Amino acid sequence: MRPLIVIGNWKMNGSLASNADWVKTVCRGMEQGMPSGRQYAFCAPFPYLSQCGQLIRDCSLAFLTLGAQDVSAHTAGAYTGEVAASMLKEMACKFVIVGHSERRQLHQETDELVAEKALQALDCGMTPVICVGESADERNSGREVEVVRGQIAKQVAVLQDRLADCLIAYEPIWAIGTGQVASAQLAQDMHRAIRLQLAEFDADVASHVGILYGGSVKPDNAVELFAMPDIDGGLIGGASLNPQDFLAICQA
Ligand code: PEP
Fold first, then answer.
1. Residue 65, strand partner residues
2. Sign of the C-alpha dihedral, residues 183, 6, 112, 101?
3. How far is the CA of 77 from the centre of ligand 1 (A)?
4. Distance in angstroms (rounded) separating the CA atoms of residues 240 and 137
5. Predicted structure pTM score
6. Average per-residue pLDDT in the chain?
7. Alpha-carbon distances, residue 24 vs 29, 99, 208, 219, 251 (angstroms)
8. What's the pLDDT band for 88 if we cut at 50, 70, 90?
9. Which residues are bridge partners to 236 per DSSP?
10. Per residue in 234-248, pLDDT tens?
11. Domains of the chain: which residue ranges?
12. Residue 115 CB: number of other CB atoms within 10 A?
């Protein structure tokens, strides 16, 4: 049985004061009781990981953990501006988002680089959240499954059975930050296609891997999405900035 996992992606938002308010509000809300067997995390910008790590240690809810939004594909050395997986691990990160569409589009990240980043996270004992998804043009021309299969195939080629220790986030680019959420059935269909593709490689890996949906998830659409058999939770952008909305999605 795969646990339901909800991960917030704060993107480039936050401040020392607002982070403290957010974590305290979410902790207080979660202390009132949460559905059992679920995991929750939020991915803060690099400079705030230390602060957020301390805040969630103070809150001490085992099911609420921390993540990062990116990681270097290199272990250490002359890579100005990059952040190594070992550093994220020291900041108590449990999850690392890799291959978010904003990084693929704005920083020309390739599937090969994304897989290298995932390996770095795995080698340091963290769970990579590997983002895949098609653009509006690709969907409108009927190529969405082909595009996502291509992205997954590159991850399978590099990560092999280590994929069992990863999460995949299906994030259709046309749904990210647009308010245009995929219908639960549309998302389920792609999640199913991804799981069947993983099963072509290894049935065990396919049944273990959590596949999260991301793209305009809000409190009012989370219940229907999370009820789908191949949707194992969500990667939440905009709505995760509001602690009450994040809590409501976590409770969905
Ligand atoms: C994201 O950035 O990963 C995301 C899913 O954003 P949003 O929820 O705002 O669409």
1. 41
2. positive
3. 32
4. 27
5. 0.97
6. 97
7. 8, 30, 32, 20, 17
8. very high
9. 8
10. 999 999 999 999 999
11. 4-29+38-250
12. 25
Question: What per-residue confidence (pLDDT) applies to 1?
Answer: 77
DSSP string for 129-176: EEEE---HHHHHTT-HHHHHHHHHHHHHHHHGGGGGG-EEEE--GGGT
Q: Which of 138, 144, 171, 191 is catalytic?
A: 171
Measured CA to CA in angstroms, residue 125 lies from 1, 23, 93 at distances of 22, 24, 9
Of all protein residues, the one whose alpha carbon is nearest to atom 2 of ligand 1 is 237
- CATH of range 4-29+38-250; options 3.40.1190.10, 3.20.20.70, 3.30.450.40, 3.40.50.12780: 3.20.20.70
**Which bin fits 33, alpha (ψ -120 to 50), beta or left (φ > 0)?**
left
Report the candidate in 219, 246, 237 with the shortest Cα–Cα distance to residue 22: 246
| Best mutation site among 5, 11, 96 for ligand 1 pocket (most ligand atoms within 8 Å of CB) | 11
Q: Token pair of 116, please?
A: 């290298």
Which whole number is the average pLDDT over 64-79? Answer: 98
pLDDT of 61 reads 92
Tokens of 170: 């299906």
215 Cβ contact partners less than 8 Å away, ≥ 6 residues apart: 133, 171, 172, 174, 175, 176, 178, 180, 181, 182
Q: How far apart are CA 150 and CA 22, in angstroms?
A: 38
Instruction: Say if ligand 1 is within 6 A of residue 9 CB.
Output: yes
Percent of the chain with pLDDT over 90: 96
